[in-house]
Amino acid sequence: MPEVAVRHARTGDVRAMRDLIEPYVQRRILLGKELVTLFEAVQEFVVAEVDGRVVGCGALHVMWEDLGEIRTIAVTDDVHGKGVGHVILEALQARAADLGLTRLFCLTFETDFFGRHGFEAVAEEIVPPDVFQQLLRSNDDGIAEFLDLAHVKQNTLGNTRMVKRL
Q1: Which helix (H) or strand (E) holds 141?
Q2: pLDDT, tens digit, 9 for 90 and up, residues 53-90
Q3: Looking at the domain 5-165, which fold is it?
Q4: How far apart are CA 105 and CA 163, in angstroms?
Q5: Cross-strand partners of 54
Q6: For the chain, which residues make up each domain, given as ranges?
Q7: Is the distance from CB of 145 to CB of 156 less than 8 angstroms?
């Protein structure tokens, strides 16, 4: 496989990112994202390119002073299983460390992938009660999923909550 280059996403990448994510939405692995939502969050994303073609994406969303969420890792079928997801996750973890985060969270069906990268399943509360109360004020559905709130249960059924210490 040719060299994989990972870089920060740009607005010109958003439609390619949507096209990457859509097959995972159809397979019910990822939640669908409106195009406007991807544009609003483009600064959270990195893309992976092979020979100038976007073949993967992933996002890091800061949740609290020490906690971030890995979101929306997707790769094209032709590079699936060839390490592109690994390269994306490594880039997102490096970005998290640069921001001063010490823990990463993900909500995933892909427990083997994240487990190979040091994430462990958790069932208990991940943040102290005072932080939980602050996070309740967020309008972000991802935060609601992290908090395991009832109004997002339809989005989280079957997913595993996983955390990694950096």
Answers
A1: helix 141-146
A2: 999 999 999 999 999 999 999 999 999 999 999 999 99
A3: Aminopeptidase (3.40.630)
A4: 4
A5: 49
A6: 5-165
A7: yes
Query: Roughly how many angstroms between the first and final C-alpha of the chain, as a whole number?
Result: 29
Structure tokens at 156: 């989280």
| Burial annotation 5-15 (CB, 10 A radius, 16+ → b, else e) | ebeebeeebbe
What single letter denotes the amino acid at residue 106?
A: C
Tokens 């544009």 belong to which residue?
39
* Distances in whole angstroms, Cα of residue 100 to Cα of each of 34, 61, 66, 125: 30, 13, 7, 21
Task: Tell me the C-alpha to C-alpha distance, in Å, between residue 31 and each of 5, 72, 122.
Answer: 26, 8, 21
Residue type, 22: E
Relative to beta strand 160-165, strand 120-121 is antiparallel
The larger pLDDT score, comparing residue 69 to residue 133, is at 69
